[in-house]
Inverse folding.
């Protein structure tokens, strides 16, 4: 059994964007934000609101709760 790690929604969003070939700009347009605002949120300098997380999950085609779970191995971003 592996130790439980804290999952930060921004990390899940970043991984899902990369694995789906989507851009921060596309997410920003869906959320009604600027790309710069999304960049700050993905960098942890600003927080996503609950409504933004729900909309981001819809954009990414996942249930909002999945943003709080570790990404499956197939969704892991390789270095």
């Amino acid at each position: 059994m592996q130790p439980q790690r804290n999952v930060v929604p921004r990390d899940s969003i970043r991984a899902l964007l990369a694995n789906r070939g989507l851009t921060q700009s596309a997410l920003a347009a869906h959320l009604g934000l600027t790309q710069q605002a999304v960049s700050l949120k993905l960098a942890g300098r600003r927080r996503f609101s609950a409504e933004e997380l729900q909309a981001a999950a819809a954009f990414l085609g996942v249930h909002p709760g999945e943003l709080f779970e570790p990404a499956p191995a197939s969704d892991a971003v390789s270095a």
